[in-house]
Amino acid sequence: MSLNPSEPHSAPLEALLPLEAKISRGERLTADEGLFLYRMAPLPWLRTQADAVRLTRHGQEAYFNRNIHFEPTNKCVYACKFCAFYRTPKATEAEGAWDYGFEYLRHKLDAYPMGSLTEIHVTGGVHPDRGVEYGEALCAFIKSIRPELHVKAFTAVEITYFAKKSGVTLTEALDRLKRAGLDSLPGGGAEIFDPEVRKRIAGGKAPAHTWLEVHEAAHRLGLLSNATMLYGHVEEYRHRIDHMLRLRDLQDRTGGFKAFIPLRYRNEANALSHIPEVPAEEDLRNYAVARLFLDNIPHLKAYWVMLGLDLATQALDYGVDDLDGTVDDSTRIYSMAGGMEHPAVTSAELGRIIRSKGRVPVERDSEYAKLRAV
Ligand code: SF4
Q1: Which of 87, 134, 266, 315 is deepest in the core (most CB within 10 A)?
Q2: What number does CATH give the domain 13-373?
């Protein structure tokens, strides 16, 4: 295993040439080849290959949207070790807990004139008292006051809990949410699928097969979704490959993932704070390998809220074609773990960043339809 950036990552050219040929022919990489790239491929070589694949897929366009997040509560029945966001269900406001009602959300949305947003992203803690009825009511409330917004809501972990609490199947829960106004699923809660690693960092919450079942059921109901991978903590490269392999297999069956979003582990204020964060080179290596390995998920997103804008800008050279959205200081998940305080950026700034890489900024909707060049 070579997660240490001081190790050479220096495969000889003769070992890289067959892979280069395979990538240029658009052939799928095996798990062993993916692992080899993580361990041995020089970063400049990975950059060249991933950038070429990105260019073939998306030309010079790079995407973003105008979105906000809503995190209804950070009270959670789980206690994932990497999480700085959650508080116990009994925690008080003084202890940093919150639980916002629908009127709070109305007030929040009132601050955005009609047409200034296209998407609301809703995720939060897994509240002990909430079943699918809560999810239905929230989706319906959003649609009642802002019918034009795409509602991307609830991780597979939240949906699994909703279903259990309400005594319904995953498919029934998703179907009810969809009827109430849910438009797509975010990719959160995937963390790392390997059972041993998952147990160490996120013991107790929905296991990998359940996360995948939720997304498969969603895709079969016509709901698209994203997929994430939390990296840079206790996992090894083989666990990342295993994770992406499971996503690739599911995507072969359903075609329902829109974007893959690697999420870097941030180490403030959690139970794993002794683990140092990976250096930027490791983030870039991860984006490039993901672009090369995940040949059937169309978009690769650098979530700037987690990376910071500078690193997200660099990631555009490593296979990334999407920078997420304007966000407007509406999420605390990463700022509580060491990410940027008050994350917000304008469309114009995202456009400037994308143009700084010689690319064409395109505002998209939540399903990647192009809305306008910026
Ligand atoms: S990651 Fe999600 S499920 Fe885990 S403790 Fe944090 S809020 Fe709860």
Answers
A1: 315
A2: 3.20.20.70
Start-to-end Cα distance in the chain: 43
Residue 2 has pLDDT above 60, yes or no: no
Token couple for 155: 């991780």
Pocket test for ligand 1, best of 69, 74, 78 (most atoms within 8 A of CB): 78
Residue 306: CB within 6 Å of ligand 1? no
DSSP code of residue 278: P
Q: What is the pLDDT of residues 85-132, one digit of tens each?
A: 999 999 999 999 999 999 999 999 999 999 899 999 999 999 999 999
Predicted model pTM: 0.95
Instruction: Quote the CA–CA distance of 214 and 178 in Å, as a whole number.
Output: 13
Q: What is the mean pLDDT of the chain?
A: 93
The residue extents of the domains of the chain are: 13-373
Contact indicator for 290, 257 with CB cutoff of 8 Å:
no
H runs (alpha helix) in the chain? 13-24, 31-40, 43-58, 102-110, 132-145, 156-166, 170-180, 195-202, 208-220, 237-254, 280-293, 304-307, 309-315, 347-356
Do residues 320 and 309 lie in contact, with contact meaning Cβ atoms separated by under 8 Å?
A: no
Which ligand 1 atom sits nearest the alpha carbon of residue 191?
A: 1
Angle at CA 46, nearest 5°, toward 43 and 49?
155
